[in-house]
Amino acid sequence: MRPADETTLVSSDGITISATHVAATGQGSHDLCLLVAHGFTNGWRVPRVQRVIGRLARFGGIIALDFRGHGRSSGVSTVGEREIHDLDAGVRWARDLGYRCVVPVGFSMGGSVVLRQAAIGCEPVDAVVSVSAPAFWYYRGTRVMRLLHLAVGTRAGRAVMRTRGVRIGADDWPDPLPMEPVAAAAIIDVPLLIVHGHVDHYFPVEHPKALHRAAVNGGNERAELWLIEGFAHAESGIDDPTLDAIGTWIRQTCRLEQIGAPVGWGSS
């Protein structure tokens, strides 16, 4: 992967955000920026996220950031609520760098953030890709999510997470709750790609189906759902062919080249 430019961005609510920019490699378009939004406990320096960055850089320039409470960013994680301000800062940087087409690609928690940012964020995007995202807040239908709620919702759990480099806020979410990803999907008016694995052990396929249904019912004729056989979850589970298909979809959506995704992709 080419050497990256590192910088510190500042969100609209005053959080400093560690970010990196990687120029497009190979035949990647210099008009296109893919804004990689990591999952919970990850960050742009984590090897599995670096692998995603390196693969997607074949299709366009990359901006990746550490969400608040992660890596070298300040603040505390709100697990998807205020992180849209972090993503807005990344979009602004992409525009400042001269990119014509900016497309966030989010994984798990980041997948929920890119949906909410596309719906209610301050910075417009040209399309959005959500991978392995939840549709609903407070989902506890799988064992791993029940454990995650213990980690986030208890003092002992948050102490353990700090040893993994994640600082989690102790404040309750506002009442009423912030907009759920499924509600955000219903009002997104740019091309939307929802990617999910059939064997996701965090969020079963009811989540991507609900997101896609909400988008279609909301009138988004450019919403697609890909359910991938053998794919588990987010950055650690996604394979290179799926990343390549996502990159191809983005380039076609931004009309940077008139080629389609490989045969067999895009089935719901």
Automatic annotation (TrEMBL):
Pfam families the UniProt entry points to: Abhydrolase_6
Gene3D superfamilies, A to Z: alpha/beta hydrolase
- Pinpoint the AB hydrolase-1 domain residues: 34-184
Alphabetized InterPro entries for the sequence: AB_hydrolase_1, AB_hydrolase_fold
Question: What is the protein name stated in its UniProt record?
Answer: Unannotated protein
